[in-house]
Amino acid sequence: MKEVFTSRWSLLLAALGMAVGTGNIWRFPRVIAQNGGAPFLIPWFLFLFLWSIPLLIIEFGIGKKTRMGTLGAFGSLNRRHTWMGGFIGICTLAITFYYCVVTGWCFRYSFATLVDLALPGGIIPGGGLWGAECTTFWTTFNRSGWQPVLFHLFGILAGSWIIYRGVVNGIEKANRIMLPSLFILLIIAVARALSLPGASAGLNYLFQPEWKALLDYKIWLQGLTQSAWSTGAGWGLILTYAVYMKKNDDIVATSFLAGLGNNSASLLAALAVIPTVFAILPAGQAESIARDTGPLSTGMTFIWIPKLFEEIAGGKFFLLIFFLALSVAALSSLISMIELGTRNMMDFGLSRKKGIIIISIACFIFGLPSALDPAFFQNQDWVWSVGLLLSGLLFALIVIDYGVARFRREMLNDIDNDIRIGRAFDFAVRFLIPVEFAAMTLWWLSQAVLVYDPDRWYHPFRTFSLGTCLFQWGLVISLLLIFQRPVNRLLFERSQTYPGSLHNTDGLSRIDSKTEEDR
Question: Distances from the Cα of 27 to the Cαs of 33, 230, 231, 269, 460, in angstroms?
Fold first, then answer.
């Protein structure tokens, strides 16, 4: 019998730990600055309810019903669509490989700050864009070779150790400590930022909207994209955690609370960063810095935040608070990613220990190129971040194939939920999610053709080309289709070992309307 979360609170903390990651702390402040501050908040918040929460509900429903990882869950609904669950799992694992590297960066900066190593000091040398010491620290770290690899390994070991301890003693206990700690650290950082003279300029930038900016379609696309990436909806991570739900755990309430909690963490991060930038630097320069991505999209986080905190009283302490929060956010998300891979391994009959070993080795080997080569890191981030949008669509398609009304009835409303879902959910799944997917994907892929690499957009081995996305996605989908039948045999010939899920004997049939437990 599988482990289950001991309480709804534990489940919610795990869901929040999955959703709240480095993207909330280093991407959100930059994206909101790049899109004019306050106007961006409106579409970003709106799409939480039009994209993210419906997908979270779908993931919870499928995971709770099938009690299997992404491969087995999709195969349970329709054996012909096991490949869809495979694509979602591989897409998220591909992100896991380089996310271990990112987690290592966070650990490195936390360690450097903790032992009072030479992070930067002083105002910008010569008035240039980058502080020399900050850039030197970052460049030295990344070009050393061994340091990114070592901290990449530390990230894997930390996440794997938590997963090895199991659902209750590992994931649940870790999130009970990490999530409250993360929010406390963010609140401390916000309090310090808002106490700075001139912080009100940053607040005005964040919360005084220019309504005409809402006429710019790019703000709507960026708001939708940020919500899609930040909440973890469509990644298969919530599906994985839903395997360990109790029968009476509420799907709808947990989905809403997880989504709102994720957005709250993003706003806290923005309140910690943007007012600090505006308080220390002139307005024009503050906006430029807030918008700049820097190397590997880390300019705000690893270049400017150390310099800015150095300029305030108690800066070293609050810098440590910031990087500890970043490290906690990275680790809480990483453990959900490692668990996704481990859960799929366990569905093939492996023990948790063996599954973790396989996934950890894969993370180290396939994460090495990203640790050593910034161009490879950027390529993988580009390909699989956009691939996540396809993953979200696949969740909607499997529900459409199953029958949206049937899904709503059997997996949401006919079980122990405090909140019942109405027909608006059907509209969101059938129409809104496909339209939103088309808008986001066409936008990002058109950027590859028109902006990122207009001369070689078709090339399969360029960093930001359309060709590299289509090549890597196509390769993965082709292999999944080729091996779908043997994968189904391996997964479902062992169906009697999974008392919480149903697998029909017909290799192409669908899941029954009741679980073995219901029978």
Answer: 10, 9, 13, 10, 27
Task: Mark out the alpha helices in 348-483 (DSSP H runs).
Answer: 352-372, 374-402, 404-407, 424-427, 433-447, 466-482
Cβ(249)–Cβ(8) under 8 Å?
A: yes
**What pLDDT, in 10s, does the model give residues 106-152?**
998 888 888 754 444 433 333 322 344 666 777 788 888 899 999 99
Whole-number Å distance between alpha carbons of 358 and 343? 12
Cα first-last separation, the chain: 16
3-state SS, 291-324, equals HCCCHHHCHHHHHHHHHHHHCCCCHHHHHHHHHH
Contact 258, 333 (CB under 8 A): no
- Residue ranges and CATH numbers for the domains of the chain are 8-497 (1.20.1740.10)
Q: How many CA atoms lie within 13 A of 8 on its CB side?
A: 14
Specify the pTM: 0.89
**Spatial contact of 21 and 330, defined as CB atoms under 8 Å apart:** yes
What gap in Å lies between CA 458 and CA 132, rounded to an integer? 38
The 8 Å CB, 24+ separation contacts for 113-122 are: 113/306, 113/316, 113/319, 113/320, 113/323, 114/320, 116/316, 119/306, 119/310, 119/319, 120/306, 120/307, 120/310, 121/310, 122/310
Side chain identity at 391, as an amino acid letter? S
CB 87 within 8 A of CB 480: yes
Encoded tokens for 345: 């391994």
CA angle 81-84-394, nearest 5°? 105
The Cα 136–Cα 120 span in angstroms is 9
For residue 116, the model assigns a pLDDT of 57
* Helix pair angle (374-402, 53-66), 10° resolution: 70
Alpha-carbon span 121 to 315, nearest angstrom: 10
The CA distance from 191 to 185, in Å, is: 10
CA-CA distance, 307 to 62, in Å (whole number)?
A: 46
